[in-house]
Amino acid sequence: MKARRRGLIIAMDGPAGVGKSTVGGLVAKALGYKFINTGEMYRALTWKALESGVDLDDDQAVLALAKRHHWEFKPVEEGGTTLKTFLDGQGVTLQIRDERVSVNSSRVAANPGVRKFLSKLQRELGASGSIVMEGRDITTHVFPDADAKIYLDASPEERASRRYRQLKAAGQEADRGAILSAILKRDLNDLKREINPLKQAPDALVIDSTHLTMHQVADRILRHVRRKAKRNAG
Fold first, then answer.
1. What is the Cα–Cα distance from 138 to 113, expressed in whole angstroms?
2. Exposure pattern of 23-56 as b/e (b: 16+ CB <10 Å)?
């Protein structure tokens, strides 16, 4: 399989709000790879289900909805690194940031059929390599044979502070305590999920980013990836 790849598959997992998208984008740009945040797929389906009036707790109905639409993953701008989700030709980047989507996406992510369906799309997307893919089960389930596996972590308090600063910088109201509570709840949901829960792959490079900048984390990952590539080439 590796012989057919144009480049490496770099898989990245970790809890919510740890900076995987920022770091993944930096790593992909440095390598000339594509980057995708797989969580956006679940958010896109959540948005579509809410818009369509589909009961999020009806597993079969949500899965049927997922299969009914045409999924595409491509950059918004020409030559862009980050792949965005398109449903039936419509970009959903803005729609999936809606608070209703944020609150309900974990219900869709716990749907076994949906996880199987979207995991298949993710494997097809990354099969030829030259990609950085992040999520909650990429290193353990989607690409257990990835060329490089990263588990990015940070304390809940630091993740809450980062999100608080991000919201304030965007001119939005923010409550640090409420953000921390939401992060802890999401962590619990991810860890306790019956289907492909969040966990560290035994062969993943674990990075605690609590006291690191995103650029420092990206540099550490790039050194690790380049060592792997050199070793594989040799």
1. 17
2. bbbbbbebbebbbbbbbbbbbbbbbbbbeeebeb
Task: Tell me the residue length of the chain.
Answer: 234
Average pLDDT estimate for 202-226: 96
DSSP 3-state assignment of 85? strand
Distance CA(161)–CA(5), nearest Å, equals 39
- For residue 205, the SS3 value is strand
What pLDDT, in 10s, does the model give residues 85-135? 999 999 999 999 887 898 899 899 999 999 999 999 999 999 999 999 999
SS3 of residue 193 by DSSP: coil
DSSP state of 139: I
Query: Most distant CA pair in the chain: distance in Å?
Result: 55
**CATH for 6-213, options being 3.40.50.300, 3.40.1440.60, 3.10.129.10, 3.40.50.2000:** 3.40.50.300
* Domain boundaries defined on the chain: 6-213
**Helix, strand, or coil here: 149?**
strand
> What is the rounded CA–CA span in Å between residue 54 and residue 80?
33
Q: Enter the tokens of residue 121.
A: 């799309």
How do residues 136-177 score in pLDDT, each as one tens digit? 999 999 999 999 999 999 999 999 999 899 889 988 888 999
What are the two backbone dihedrals, phi and then psi, of residue 208, each rounded to the nearest 5 degrees?
-90, 110
Tokens 């910088």 belong to residue = 169
